[in-house]
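Human: I'm a chemist; would you kindly supply sequence and structure tokens for a protein?

Assistant:
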Amino acid sequence: MAEMKALFSPGKIGSLYLRNRIVMAPLGSRLTSENGAVTDDMIEFYSQRARGGAGLIIIEAMGIDYPLAVGKPNHVRFHDDCYIPGHAKLAERIHECGSKAFALLWHTGINRGMFADQTPVGPSAILNPNTGLTPRELTVDEIHALVEKFGQAAHRAMLCGYDGVSVHAAHGYLVSSFVSRATNHRTDEYGGSFENRIRFALEIVRSIRANTRKDYPVVFRINGDDFIDGGITPEEAAQFAMALEKAGVDAIDVSAGVYGSIDTMIEPIQYPEGWKLYLAENIRKHVNVPVFGVGVIHDPEMADRAIAEGKIDFAALGRELLCEPQWGNKALAGDRHFPKCIGCNACFERIGFNLPLRCAINPLAGRELHAPKPAEQVKHIAVVGAGPAGVTAAVTASRRGHQVELFESTAAVGGQLRLAGTPPRKDKILEYIKYLEEELASSTVRLHLSHTFTPEDAAGFDEVIIAAGASCRDMEVPGAEHCRETAWQALETPAEHYAGRNVVVVGAGSVGCETALYLKEGGAASVSIVELRPKIAMDMDNISRMKLMHELEEAQVGLYPSASLERVAEGTGYLKSAAGETSAEIPCDLVVIAVGSNSHRELAEALYQRGVRAYSVGDAANIGKIGEAVRGGFDAAATL
């Protein structure tokens, strides 16, 4: 890795000097207490990222009012002095670990669902299709009160020892919704002209300045583009940034997207690295204060290059530091071995259910206080299956001091990840396989490839961890006896093999949908997906699903929910509706089955019958996603 002088050059925001140009972007952690207070888990979560080399930590969104400013009960609250002690401890701990800390002041506004029997508030009473609620229009007096509350929260942050504040004026939250023509239809001094629509934001700047010391750093997080009709455009974003600079803001943090374009706000796997840095570059051309760039910045060299070329001044990393807290230290040392975010959005799927933050590929994310200790008694452990669950289990057990042997029936590490990384724009998963291979290579684990583990092999081992995975479920379709295969078989076959074919995929889960894209973009004449349930891709998080649905539409994949493939005859597939009636006829000379998978539990049963201590993890225990497999493997090894 080349020396990265730009990324590790000192940074400055207003009066504040930073050790480098790495910023931890705000991430909702749900690690607070039930009433939104700081916890020990939250302190350790952030302090590890500080120890890992980030120059600045921006703490997740803090509600400046209650209940209307927060979206859920355990969002971080910062509306009352009773929260000062916890935040003071958090800021102090981050300082002890070598970093600076900013508080992100926030009001969720129109993006708030119905919570505590309170209707959301916003600039105008316009139905929000993302929540299904129409917010109540704020009065001018209420706006003035909120301006003052932002100032009071900034004063609170200064008392706690935070080195500065950032104001969340992006993503369609309250401040952003005032700026956008799509959500602000007011006719008073806070609506209409651009100058009126940014008035609320500028008044917040003045309030913060009035409630803090003269040189207290203030950052605004804004959208470089809303990516919706009537939303904030790059041109308006530049005007907004210039007005903020004139008002005394010390830096601009440039993000993008609102909930109606959420895949541009929280990018799923398909987006390339650094794809939205052009929005920060646009802002930087118009202001003289530092500009933060964010958005799929995995590679330290890319971040360094973006700073060196003058596109951005600071690289803001969110999920990258969730995956690898030591990102900064490893980049500085030239260490290329670290896990890179695969954009699976398991983290955001969890917090969407109000669950504590976790990462699919970092099993300790969000539970840093609970790292496993060295083994008290060294054991000889067999791990069966070298997919993500098996490799994680093997490496974790090895690092605890156990003697570990890993058995894989195929000739390569990765398991189902190799299939998952095959569809278009899923190559980040293949990078994760490379990381797992490197993990094994740097460990003391003995790897046995092309070795099918049998009950007899268990002799001599103290414990067996079974991560044998699953197999693709098959089903019969009348008339398709000689033109049927499973989705896994299709993904193992070069896509060009299906050129010119008319394919019907049975099953619209993530595997079926991604297989359909693989076949269509590989040259299939037509691809249709038939699904018994009323919704396509029901097993995916909403963000990934939104992007996938766009891709299916662009690829002209036919979608037939609430239907089944009744039979195939002479190149035609006959569909039956959920009501039992023949509903459509579609071209079909190949049927691909994607109706789920079956856990491999035979080995577990055989070992149980022999009285062998064995633990099933990953798909061998229950069919799940990557994160569930990784945590399952980690937890099994952490307890032995």
